[in-house]
Amino acid sequence: MLSELFPTAVRYTGSSLTFSFAGIFGGSLAPYIATGLAKDYGLQYVGYYLTGAAALTFVGLIAVRETKDESI
User: Fold this and answer.
1) Fewer C-beta within 10 Å: the chain N or C terminus?
2) How many beta carbons lie within 10 A of that of residue 35, not counting itself?
3) What is the value of pTM for the model shown?
4) Collapsing DSSP states into helix, strand and coil, what is residue 6?
5) How far apart are CA 50 and CA 48, in angstroms?
6) Residue 40: predicted pLDDT
């Protein structure tokens, strides 16, 4: 699904950059944000943060269009 979002000429580069940036931002920043929220506001706000991240992911999933019938 991810590779279909990019034109054929840049498909591999687009997929690999997206995957790499997702790992950097999701894997490195999320624990720092969660730790800061838990320390400053309590563990409840970590749950709010995770709920917001899940909602944002859901919105992104809905925004992606189906390419089944298109020539890619």
Assistant:
1) N
2) 11
3) 0.71
4) coil
5) 5
6) 97
The residue among 22 and 69 whose pLDDT is bigger is: 22
Q: What is the rounded CA–CA span in Å between residue 15 and residue 48?
A: 29
Who contacts 12 (Cβ-Cβ below 8 Å, separation ≥6)? 3
Contact yes or no for 46/34 (Cβ under 8 A):
yes
Structure tokens at 58: 């859901």
Alpha-carbon torsion, ordered 71, 64, 26, 22, to 10 deg: 20
Q: Return the HEC string of 20-72.
A: HHHHHHHHHHHHHHHHHHHHHCCHHHHHHHHHHHHHHHHHHHHHCCCCCCCCC
